[in-house]
Here is the input.
Amino acid sequence: MSARMRKQLCQGELGSAELVYRKGNFYLHISITIPAPEVKQPQGSLGVDLGFSRVAVTSDKKFHTAKNIRHKKACYKRTRRSLQANGSKSAKRALKRVSGRERRFVADTNHCVSKQIVADAQANNQRIVLEDLNGIRQTGKAKCVHEWSFAELQWMIRYKAAKAGVEVVTVSPRYTSQSCSRCLHLGVRPNQSKFQCRDCGYQINADLNGAKSIAIRHDLVAMGRYFCEYPRKEVNRPGAVRSSEKKRQARNLKPQAPSTARPRA
Here is the structure.
């Protein structure tokens, strides 16, 4: 046993142990309980928006993409389909090995993402704000919701944050992806990656807007406010107007054809 592992064992209270045999070698897994450090008073909030196309997007403009995860999952899905169609005993053994590899790959990716998020929050003395996604599998109709490992990622963020002394809070996910992070009015998404506000004209990446909305939703409620007070000159397009107002202005400027109807007596 190395000196580093001996130091870690001495820092906490020993728990259960498990002896694992893998590829001709024996490994001893020992769990220890480490007391959580005192949580410091944060100076800001780091919103985290979880999604399918991107594993996580934080309000400090950091994107953790899921392109490799989707590609790996598609490859494993084709392999499972082929093995299930075979149905032999060797195919079932191979199917068990494939499912274990996929699970370990996703867990390793979630470990790396959660570690980076907690490290950023600790370096900037920020709290981490997550969405309360309990029950989303029961209400979500899309198939990708049931293949989404958001619960594992949130659990990893929580226990890593507790070890680092970082506060973690949750907010309601309702309208976080549809609300403008500047004025809190509802906007539109012309496509999956773009967000436009109809009220102030703010244009931003949709996932980044969701992360900022999550952070500001907690901060406003903590300060006793429920709306933003950004002046119009601070947004991208100061002269932006609602789409309904544009249509009304175009309708008023359009020349009207002379009426041919007979006047009533």
Notes: Confidence is low (pLDDT under 50) at residues 231-244. The chain is about 45% helix and 20% strand.
